[in-house]
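Lab notes, practical 5.
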Amino acid sequence: MILSVNGIHKTYGKEKVLNGVSFHIDRPKIVALVGPNGAGKSTLLNIITNLKQPNKGHITILDRDNRDPEIFKEISYMQDNSVLYDYLTGFDHLQFIGDMQGISKEKLLIAAKKVGMESYLNKKVGKYSLGMKQHLLLTMALVNNPKLLILDEPMNGLDPTSAIRVRELLIEEHQNGTCILLSSHNLSEIDRITSNIIFIKDGQLIEEDISTYEKTCYFVDVDNVNKATSILKENYIAKVKGNKIIFYNEDLPIQSFIELMNINHINIVDIEKKVYGSEERYQSIYMKTEVEL
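Output from the prediction step:
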């Protein structure tokens, strides 16, 4: 078992943040922890990594108690940039980890190159942009080649190019056998790297495989919407808005629709594809709104 979280409760004063949270990860995969600000995501990650203590419950990592300091040779936790020191260079931060865990300078530099921060590795962190700080935090988390990589908002502050690079890096790490648990507000990025999502609400978890919820919808503009509607209405589930025919792929495969239009000499002007995934599920859980066609 890579990670086992069992019955975690956490309160701050009278506020109940976590209320019997349990979940398990038994093999390397990417799992996303999702919820609005204040839902308890960072608190849960801090408890998993033994930086905060629960009021009740217990956690094992790689079949050992999470309070065992030896596990940090095999796991990493990327926190926010409040753990960085402005007066130290990026390399100073890596060197500290290297000294603590017996990691060579060569391996530190390999990790920095992997993330793409070689050019500013020797600059003081006080001169880093937010994105550069995120790169340093990620490099710090990768230097020990962890079996379990825990990330708190890894995409925060990244420009599109950096976000793509980090996304590809996380997928590569997973393909190499690393298990990844991350929290994020960036639902579109989550959809690109995993369908395994844990939603946290009212101190409890809703664990789902979004691929079972995910739907593909098509908005198709045709030159004769009345004729198209007449042909479709008896056999398929579809709606009409203006000149657009709207339907889910599971109700009417797009190729079948195209062939049907061609047979009946109806021209397709435009096709827009939209995948309903984690963002729409988020709306239904937290905003109590369902996406309608």
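Observations recorded by the TA: The chain has two domains: 3-210, 215-276. The domain at 215-276 is CATH 3.30.70.980 (Alpha-Beta Plaits).
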